[in-house]
Amino acid sequence: MYEPNVVGDWQEYDEHAGLRVRVHRLEPAEPPRGRDDAAEGLTYFSVRVTVENRGARHFGIHLEDGQIDVRIGPDGESAFLDWRNSQFIEGFDVHPLRRATAVLYAAGAEASLGQVDVQVQLRVDEEWADRRLWSGGLGLHEGAAAAPGCAGRDGGLAHQVSAFLRDQAEEGTA
């Protein structure tokens, strides 16, 4: 298994030259068609999965129901996935220098959203690519208090990820 990526990182696929995937824009968001009754009392959030083709040929990609798994909290409990509001990539040809993005709406207990893991298994030209994992969290803003479950400034994975990204931005890395 590969090391997990930080939400926002690109992950390239060796078996498909030029193809890369990124999980990004993990943020609180209300679903566009209204809340699902099964998510009563839960906090909604959205996450985007973008597939980019930097190669020389087009790829037929699928990123559908069941190919994205979202886990929350320190115990990795499954988040509620709102399939009705989510937008997937279903049999799309991504040509060179083009992108396609899926938008997933999920919900979970607010106290568990400081740690969110998203696992993606892309299907490319009818072949399954390796699974990849991204880690991040909600509610982490510069200068904000530690996320629930974090013991101070250096506690918790999501807070550490946020601090790392903030440090990288201050150094001016691209």
From TrEMBL:
<protein>
    <recommendedName>
        <fullName>DUF4352 domain-containing protein</fullName>
    </recommendedName>
</protein>
